[in-house]
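WARN no homologs supplied; continuing
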Amino acid sequence: MPELSQRIQTLNTAGSDGWEVFYRARQMIAAGTPVTELTIGEHDIRTHPMILDHMHERARAGHTGYAAVPGIRPLRDAIAARVTARTGTDTTADNVVITAGGQAALFASHIALCQPGDTALHIDPYYATYPGTVRGASAIPVAIPTRARDAFLPDPAVVDRIARETGARSLLINTPNNPTGTVYPRETLEGLAQVCIDNDLWLISDEVYDTQIWDGHHLSPRALPGMAERTLVIGSMSKSHAMTGSRVGWIVGPQPAIKHLIDLSTNTNYGVPGYIQDAALFALNEGTWLETEVGEPFRRRRALALDILAAQNTVTAIPSQGAMYVMLDIRATGLSGRDFAERLLDARHIAVMPGESFGASAAGHIRVALTVEDALLAQALRELCTFAKDLTT
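OK structure emitted
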């Protein structure tokens, strides 16, 4: 067989990334062993039936052929209006392109902004696909370290130093953050914006959890002075409307960049199915009540989790301000996040993600997804804390 490209062969680096815990939990379940899964960010409710009904109606009505590659105009208009209302930044359909989910938007953004061999910065801890996405665009991922004692907030001075040392082309941030639940405050975002301006960086802002804010306020950095022309914002229906499998995402950015991103869509997936876009438009037009309904279980479970964790002193919670996760510091046990997760799965049949799955800065931590019903979550967290305490005695 002829040799495959270096790009595809190096998409993911060799060695363990901690996802073996997730795969092993799935194997145990398939073999009939009950496991409480607190691993991936998948809602335990499904897409609202009325959205599915509308999707079905539009498919039956014939919107099953090629849809407009940039996205249907009414959906782009609705996203533009939503962004304008929430950020105060004037946005039109010409600033929006629809993508096959937020992941495709991340990949397209790096393809658009980075030349082969460019350095693309991202914050550690990070969503697990970030480095592979950057490598897929033939750029070089460089992680910016953060510290647990700072709630994993990036230090703009550190970002500035690394940007200068590497001659970076872009910076990827994620707020509210997966895996940490941290919401970047204005001061941090203003500092990062100044770094981007000083170093002539593009900023890619992953904001797919912007409807899940439990403490503080979400600020899109595109709204800061001088940033609209150098920022691409990633959005998605997946988390806000429990439409993970529908694959509807978008990029919001300056019109010249969006024009070229539409060309990229033409030469890659050729658009998102029209009837699915129709369903996304229907969901957005329902207003904020639906987003609140989707997010409310995570708000409630976050409070439940913090109450349980406050009742013991072995496991420490990183302040969780948004998204559907809590990040827990288990370094008091003397174990790595990977070892703790492996032993917890074996001993208690509870599956969590090792912090090391999300980068070196999260070593000695685990991520817990708040994606099971309340009573089961409470039981699992109490067992997790007891297990951790037993390791220290």
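The chain has two domains: 6-46+289-392, 66-286.
OK
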